[in-house]
């Protein structure tokens, strides 16, 4: 072997020794496994193996879904847009029941051996009544709530853990993702899935970018993400769950992300930028076009959290209100989250996570082929996923259609404007920032805003306190239209009372906020919050 250099001799000998050792300890199977693992890292061969796996999946999937093998490479189901005009509830229910009957195995028929655990009739009846009693009222009226309940009840015992077991639900999920992607201006490449809510969508996004960075930038061992301080705590939760460091940057006096500060916070470890449309506390949309341009320049992915605004901003933009371009129209936006259980008016437990393409989404997926219980795959945090939420989300979107969402957005936006304008005229109060949609924060001009919250609560209102600066957050909903006049009257009276009596905050939540504001070490406040939770969950 004269053609090998001295170092190559050593390397080849070590490799042969390792292979012989593997053959002795694990047999030829072990050697084959090791060779395949190594081959996947060889340029060209790795791609070829991935292509073969992809083609096998293409051929195999139709056998699981009951379709025929596709001859066309990468054939995608056609994009489904939100209907321009809402469909009739009866037609939707009929279509759903037909699909369910034709495609899904009846969970009560005793023919399944996993996924669904049902008792016989009596318990189901109690459960049905409990759902009727405690299911939320969306504020869109009795008719809407009854319809959502009926859909939810029809699919209550279905489970989308395995997307091939309930084909009707698989279709509802794919179409729901497609409808959301289309009104958020995603192109045909945009993909995603449903999750249980905004937090799960955000958790998935952070996990996705962490795993992508592990693959594409293995030199990064301590990944970081950069976000304005107003970003939802779900990102902080994701940071702590997935060991990604959160780098918060301050916002400007308008409460919008400071793009320069974000760029300055980027380091060699940054794997993700995040922004909100809008952020929860003050209802303002971050300057997403600028952040998107910066993300492109710095070659970093950008997640836009539209959990709150994804189902509201598109309609108010169409109504002519000024809305910053917040969605996939910005070329640097690589993923978005939008909650159907907020302004989508479906039941709790429904959000969409969308990615610009499968190049990102693939890192969200989890698979494990070594379990004696079977080949396991999952697309989000949850294992079992309640089908009722997915069915309800699809049905609500079809029933409302674009015209239904526009009409509601118009009403809620008018109520918001009425409230904001009235509050600006109440001495001692102001609006923090310039809200872009149907949420705002009331700030103080010289009165104790936490005492104001207490005073309002004594009149029966349930107030949401925010901090830095102290304020009161209001998300406006359809149910507020009928009480908007009373709300501003009570606010005016309460503000006068607090001002004259120089009231201090002295009740439960306000007192906690008041104290928290004075504690310099926030970790003490964090411990206090955990203690409170332990109290709540250990006492009846
Ligand atoms: C902007 C924003 N993102 C994420 C979330 C989290 O959503 P969820 O409570 O559904 O987990 C919220 C909730 O209010 C939100 O306002």
UniProtKB/TrEMBL annotation:
Cross-referenced Pfam families: Pyridoxal_deC
Bilayer topology: Single-pass membrane protein
GO molecular function, one term: pyridoxal phosphate binding
Coiled coil: none
Top-level taxon of the source organism: Eukaryota
Main location: endoplasmic reticulum
Cofactor(s) the record lists: pyridoxal 5'-phosphate
Name of this protein: sphinganine-1-phosphate aldolase
